[in-house]
Specification:
By secondary structure, this protein is mainly alpha-helical. The protein contains 5 helices and 4 strands. It is 48% helix and 12% strand. Helix 4 (96-117) links the parallel strand 3 (75-78) and strand 4.
Length: 171
C-alpha cells in the first residue's frame, strides 16, 4: 500500500473516512505513504504495520497482532506482489513470485478469515493480472525446478493462482 495501485486505493479509502492499515514489507516506506495521505487528508485514520508476504511466519505474526487489535475487518485487499524478479526464494523456500503473490496472500486470508467472517458485509478483494491468461498451473512443478525458472511464466502462474484462489474463496 505504499506505491502504485495499493497506495491510490489506500488514499481513496482514507479520504472517504475508512480506517486504513498500510501493511507493508518496509515500515519506512509505509510511514512515508502514511505521511503523504495525512498531508492531503489531515483527519484520515491511517495506521502502518509491517507485513512481509515472503515470510509465512511474519504473515502469521501480523495476522495475530491485527486480530488482537481490531474487532472487525470490513475490507481485505490482497494487492502486494513481486513481478519478474531473478530466480529467488521466500524464507520458507518457495519460488518468490508464487510464494509472495499467492501463498502469502492465501496464508494472510486464512489467518484473518475468522475476523472477516464475523464482520457483516465484509469483502475480500484479490488483485490479479492479465498475465494470468498466459499462466499455466504446473502442479507437479510449482517451484519451476523441473522446467527451469523463467520469470514471466512464473509470474503468470502466480497470477493464475490468485484467480483460482478467488474462485474457490467465493465458492
Amino acid at each position: 500500500a505504499n506505491t502504485g495501485l495499493g497506495f491510490e486505493t489506500a488514499r481513496a479509502l482514507a479520504q472517504k473516512g475508512a480506517q486504513v492499515t498500510l501493511a507493508c514489507r518496509s515500515l519506512d516506506k509505509a510511514k512515508e505513504a502514511q505521511q503523504r495521505i495525512l498531508e492531503e487528508t489531515s483527519d484520515a485514520h491511517v495506521d502502518v504495520e509491517q507485513l512481509d508476504l515472503s515470510d509465512l511466519s511474519n504473515v502469521e505474526t501480523f495476522a495475530k497482532r491485527f486480530s488482537e487489535n481490531h474487532d472487525r475487518l470490513d475490507l481485505l485487499i490482497l494487492n502486494a506482489g513481486v513481478m519478474v524478479p531473478p530466480a529467488s526464494k521466500t524464507k520458507q523456500g518457495f519460488e518468490l513470485q508464487f510464494g509472495v503473490n499467492h501463498l502469502g496472500h492465501f496464508a494472510l486470508t486464512g489467518h484473518l478469515l475468522p475476523l472477516v467472517q464475523s464482520t457483516e458485509q465484509s469483502r475480500i478483494v484479490v488483485l490479479s493480472s492479465m498475465a494470468a491468461t498466459q499462466g499455466k498451473m504446473s502442479f507437479d512443478d510449482l517451484q519451476f525446478e523441473k522446467r527451469g525458472y523463467s520469470p514471466w511464466p512464473a509470474y503468470g502462474q502466480s497470477k493464475l493462482a490468485n484467480q483460482l484462489f478467488t474462485l474457490e474463496l467465493q465458492r
